[in-house]
Amino acid sequence: MSMDKLFLYDTTLRDGAQGADVSFSASDKVKIVDRLDKLGIHYIEPGFAGSNKVDDQVFRQLSTMDLEYAKISAFGMTRRPLVPVDEDASLKALIKCGTPAVTIVGKTWDRHVTNVLRTTLEENLAMIADSVKYLKGQGREVIFDAEHFFDGFKQNQKYALEVLKTAQKEKVDWIVLCDTNGGIMPHEVDQIVTLVKKEISTPLGIHCHDDSGMSQANSIAAILRGVTQVHGTINGLGERCGNCNMSTLIANLKLKMGYKDLITDEQLKRLKEISSYIFEIANMKENPGLPYIGSNAFTHKGGMHSDAVLKDDVSYEHIDPALVGNERRISISDLAGKAAIFEKAKELGMDLEKDDEKVKTILANIKVLQNEGFAYESADASLELLMKGTAHDPKHPGKLKAKFFTLERFRVITETNGDGIPRSEATIKVKVNDREFLTAAEGNGPVNALDNALRKSLEYFYPEVKNMVLSDYKVRITDQSGTGSKVRVLIETKDNEKSWVTVGASENIIWASWIALADSIVYKLLKELEKKGFSLA
Asked: Do 355 and 226 have their domain in common?
C-alpha cells in the first residue's frame, strides 16, 4: 500500500450544506472552519463563490483569520460556454474571494456536455483549459473537480481522459475524480483509477457520494491505488444520501490503514466532539449509529456482551473509544447481567460490591418494569433514579417513591370552542413537605398543560425547575392491542447545562407521560442536591 502523504479536503460547508434540511449561517460556517482547522483538515471548502450573500460574507470573514493547519479553497465553475475568462462572473467571484486555493468543477461526461451544458465537446475542453490557465495566472492553487468522472469514463473513456489531460496540460495542481451520482462500485474504482494513473501524472483526488452506500469503500479503494487527496463531509452530510463521511474516513485511515501522521492523536480525540457540534449547529438530531463517533458505537446491551467487554474490552470493541473522543456505554435492559449493573452503578458513583444484594434487586426491578413496557436503553435519567431508589415501585409501576414531592391527584381536560381549536387545561394537587398545593395551568396539549401545572406547583419550593425545558416527546406502542395498547413515552428535557431522557409506560398515554414528566423533574432536583454534596445513592 502506498503511504504517500494524504491530504484531507472537507466540503461540509459547501457540498454538505446542500443536504436536505441543512442550513448554516455565515457565523456558523466561520465557527466550523475554526473547528475543522483544529481537527487538522488540510483543505476546507467553505462555500460557493458568488452564489449567495452568506458565502460572500464567509469569505470576507475568513480573509482575516489565521488558520494553523487548513488552506481555504473557494468553489466555483469553469467559464461559461463562449464567454471570455476575464468576463466570466464565476471566475471573477473566485478571484474576489482571495483564497489561496480555488476549486472549479467541469464536465467529464459527454452526455452532460451535450444535454446539460448544451455545447460541443470541443468547447467544453476549451472552457476547462481557459479557466485553469486564467486562475493559475492569478497565482492560485487550482483544484479541478472532474464531475461525473466515473460515469463519463464508463460511457466514453477516451473523452473523459481527454478532459483530464486538458486540465493537466495547463498545469492544474490537483485533478479530483468525482463519483457525483454515487453509483460506482469499489472494484470499478480500483480498475479505473489504475488506468487513470497510467495516463495522468498530476496528483489525484477522490470525491464520492453515498447513493449506493459505497462512498467509504470507494474512497479507500482510490487511496489504495495512489490517490492523495480525499474529499468528504463531517457526519456524511450532503445532497440525497450524502457524501463520504469524513469522520469515519479519518478514523479508518489513521487507526486501520497506517496513516499515523494524517492528523495527531490529540486531534483524533476531537472527532466525536466536532461531529456533535456540527449536528447541533445544523439543528439536526445526532445519528447514534455512526461508526466510531455515534453514541451507540460502543454501547453494549446484551448481558453476555456487556459482561465480556467489562472483563476484556477487546472482546467486543474494535478500538478504544477514547481514541476518537467517544466512550463505552453499558445499556441496561432485561438482557443485562449483574456485571453490567455493577459497572453502571460505579459510573453513577454508587458504592456497591458485585455480590451486593442491591445489585440483584436492581436487576430484578428492571426486568419487572421492562415487562410492563418500560425501556432504559435510551432513558439514562430514569435508570439512574431507579438505581438510586428515587423512581417507581416495580410492584406498582407509576407510583413515585421520590423524596421531593408526592402526587395526590391530577385531572387533564381537552376541549374545543366554536373555532375548532383544541385547548388543554391541567389541574394537579401535590404534597411537598406535608403541604398540599392545588394548581392549574393551560397548554397547547394535555402533556404540555400537565408539565406546566406540575412545575407551577413546585416552583416555590424548587426554583431550579424554572430553567427546565421539555425539548422532545416521543410515543411508542409496545404491543399490538389496537387503541388499548400499552404505550411507552420518552421525554427529553434540558437545562442550561445538559439534557436527559426519562421514560414512562402504561395503557394510558397521559399516565405514561406523567411518569416520564415526574422523573424528569426528580432527576433535575437530584442533580441539584448532588451539586451541593448530598447523595441519595
From this structure: no
Are 408 and 432 contacting, i.e. CB atoms less than 8 angstroms apart? no
* pTM of the predicted structure, to 2 decimals: 0.72
- Four-point Cα dihedral 187, 192, 197, 203, nearest 10: -90
Within 10 A of 191 (CB to CB), how many other CB atoms are there?
14
- Summarize pLDDT for 435-475 with one digit per residue, the tens: 898 999 999 899 999 999 999 999 888 999 988 888 888 88
Nearest residue to 407 via CA among 384, 388, 427, 382: 427
CB proximity list for 259: less than 8 A, separation 6 or greater: 3, 6, 253
Q: Do 258 and 340 belong to one domain? A: no
Specify the CATH number for the domain of residue 202. 3.20.20.70
User: Model confidence over 99-119: pLDDT tens digits?
Assistant: 999 999 999 999 999 999 999
Amino acid at 407: L
Instruction: Bin 246: left if φ > 0, else alpha if -120 < ψ < 50, else beta.
Output: alpha
100 touches 140 (CB < 8 A)? yes
Domain coverage including residue 440: 406-531
Q: Are residues 459 and 524 in the same domain?
A: yes
- Separation between Cα atoms, residue 394 and residue 372, nearest integer Å: 9
H or E element at residue 230: strand 229-232
At 482 the pLDDT is 57
Whether residues 237 and 321 fall in one domain: no
Instruction: Say if 83 falls within a structural domain.
Output: yes
> Does residue 396 sit within a domain?
no
In total, the chain counts a number of residues equal to 537
Name the domain count of the chain: 3
